[in-house]
Amino acid sequence: MRFKKPLGVIGTPISHSLSPLLHNYLANEYELPFQYSAYHVDKISLEDAISGARALGFRGLNVTVPHKKNIMPFLDEIDEFALKTGAVNTVLFEDEFTTGYNTDIFGFLDSLAIESVDLSGKNVIVLGAGGAAHAIVFAAKNAGARTINIVNRTHEKAVDLAQKTGCEAINFSKFTETPTGDVVINTTSVGMYPEVTKCPVPQSVFREKCVYVDIVYNPGLTQFLKFAHDSGAKIVSGIGMLIFQGIMAMEIWSGVKIDRQKHFEPLKKLLVNAIENQ
């Protein structure tokens, strides 16, 4: 029996993670020598977890909340995109050397591309001002968005992120009274399972001639996307971003190019089914 090097995802909470399902599917499809599992790691144990993974011969880790920023001091090198967004979601262990990457940026853009959504020349509204928002703002800039405006209930946080990224901050009440933008992206966790009836903005802001994107993937159709769909607008769920950021991570660990078009629909079906049966 061939030895399988361990991979995993660390975070807290972690029991809901779909990453093991996604990555073990890819490992099986490409006959890669990996076994992927989820590990509960709290903040106080983060440095020990990285040292332990290195000692146990891990090939890589995914990093989720609340560790994407806090893990950075414990790594030997950080790639340029992770540095620019201030967040690491993928770690490669190679010859006692650790490198941190951010695959969320390109995973997000791939998830738009497969739904024929192009941010080039568009006026983009980003809801939220946390770590995820920072990555999405960078992605939108990279895609050539015409303008990027940040909306957050705590306006000071929106201003802070806008200043860091060269964007504009819009007051939450002003946006809800006079909605703008060609593409509106929810980067908050509002509406995530189990609080599935919540929405980050009132139903009155949704317009037909707009695209609405939610990076939340559980549930697959959030209240945010339901309101957008009811208005006649085009919607994009977070499941694509989950899939494509995971594919990019597996490519980093394995060195194997993965066929995105071939595996998107099977993975989407697999993960949506898992969500529905949680």
Strand order of the largest sheet: 2-1-3-5-6-4
- Helical region count? 10
Question: Largest beta sheet, briefly?
Answer: 6 strands, mixed
Proportion of strand residues: 15-25%
- At the fold tier of CATH, the topology name of the largest domain is Rossmann fold
Specify the oligomeric state: single chain
Number of strands: 12
Task: Using the alpha-carbon principal axes, give the shape.
Answer: globular
Jot down its keywords.
278 residues; alpha/beta; Rossmann fold; six-stranded mixed beta sheet; 10 helices
Sum this structure up briefly.
The protein is built from 10 helices and 12 strands. With 278 residues, it is of the alpha/beta class.
Could you characterize what this model shows?
The chain has 278 residues and is an alpha/beta fold. Helices cover 38% and strands 20% of the residues. The chain folds into two domains: 5-101 and 240-277, Rossmann fold (3-Layer(aba) Sandwich); 106-236, Rossmann fold (3-Layer(aba) Sandwich). The strands form two sheets. The protein has a six-stranded mixed sheet. Helix 4 (104-113) crosses helix 9 (239-254) and helix 9 (239-254) packs across helix 10 (260-276). The protein is globular, with a radius of gyration of 19 Å. The mean pLDDT is 94.
